[in-house]
Amino acid sequence: MRPRWDVLVVDDEEVVRSGVSRVLSEAGYEVATAADGTAALAHPAASSCRLVLLDLMLPDRSGIGLLEALRELRPDRPVVVITGYATSESLARALEAGAASVLAKPFDAAELLDAVRTALAETAPAGARRDPP
Length: 133
Known about the structure:
Layout: E1 7-10, H1 14-26, E2 31-34, H2 37-42, H3 45-48, E3 51-55, H4 63-73, E4 79-83, H5 88-96, E5 101-104, H6 109-123
Parallel strand pairs: 1-2, 1-3, 3-4, 4-5
C-alpha cells in the first residue's frame, strides 16, 4: 500500500520542519518533510500530498521556482508559502506563481492550522471532508 500524506513541509530549518510537523501531526495530519527543493521534488509526497507548506529561502534553488514546479505537478493542490522574508515584492511573486496564501514567520500553531484548514477547504470538492482524516 502506498503511503498517503496530507502535507509536505519544505523548509531548510530543522526547528521549523520539526515544529510544523509536530503541530500538524497532533492535529491529525499525515506529514512528510524535506530540507530543500531537490529533496522535496524527489519525495513521493511531492505528487501525492494534499497541501505543500513551502519556505521561499531554500539552499539549493529558488522557492518561487520550486513553487512553480510543484504547481506543474499538481495544479489543483494548494501551496502555502511560509517565509521570514516577507517583502511586498516577494509576497506578490509568490501569489503570482500560484501560492494559495502566505504565512509570515514567526507564526503560532493556531495561525498555522488556520492557514492549512483554509487552503484545504478552498480546494476541496463540494461535500468533501475538510478536516484531517
